[in-house]
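Tutorial, part two.
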Amino acid sequence: MILKSDRFQTIYLVTPKCGTTSIYEAMLNWHGFKPNSPPRVYLRHNRSKIAKTGLYEEDVQLEDLESYYHSHRNFVWFSTIRHPNARIQSAYRNKLNRYARRFDYKTYFRGKCRHFLSSPKLWGNMNRVSSCIGNYIDLTQFIDGLIANGIDWDPHYMPLAKLLRLDVVRYDCLLRLESLASDYQKLLDMMEKRGVCTEEFERVPVLNASSSGNSTNLMLKQSLQSKVAQLYEEDFKLLGYENSLVRS
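Running the prediction step on this input gives:
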């Protein structure tokens, strides 16, 4: 998925579980919009109005990204990245339902029943769905399941290096979620050098619903860290993240 600003000649390649909500909010703000609902929902409900300001969401498949990149080389290209330990925990908290539905439907059904019996106000809360399923699948079982079944079947689990197509796309800026505010400023500085006036742009909002109520812990126990390093070896190698944060 691509979020393209023709007005500011900037392209954001969407990387799930890496601060997507914050970047959508920021780019909508660039174009004068103040979403009163989740930014991606707001964009899709107001697509025509937003498109008139030069902001578009485009579904570009990985296999088509190389040609799309070459036809938009004059744009500033950026994306967001995140430490694999934190990203996989975020996926566990917020997207465990996708894993269970695909690979452990019996447990998925048990979790959904438990979720259904909770307050109707929580029925649309994906964190709550995954929390209910998480009563039957812990983080270790989840990671073991990903090792057994692979991670290329869903972009929320797929390695960032593969999603970013680092083999064909040369990014002007990769923003780390861990230092999003300062990295976002570097992006704005780069845009300024391209002739874009960014002085009225607000600071990037920190919006990450999947982490509410649960802090991400980079200090996983050694056995889990080794498994994450196995799953995301390419991300550790190509994105510069340390894979020895954990001490046994």
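Strands lie at 2-5, 10-13, 55-58, 76-81, 173-176. In part three we will examine how such features are distributed along the chain.
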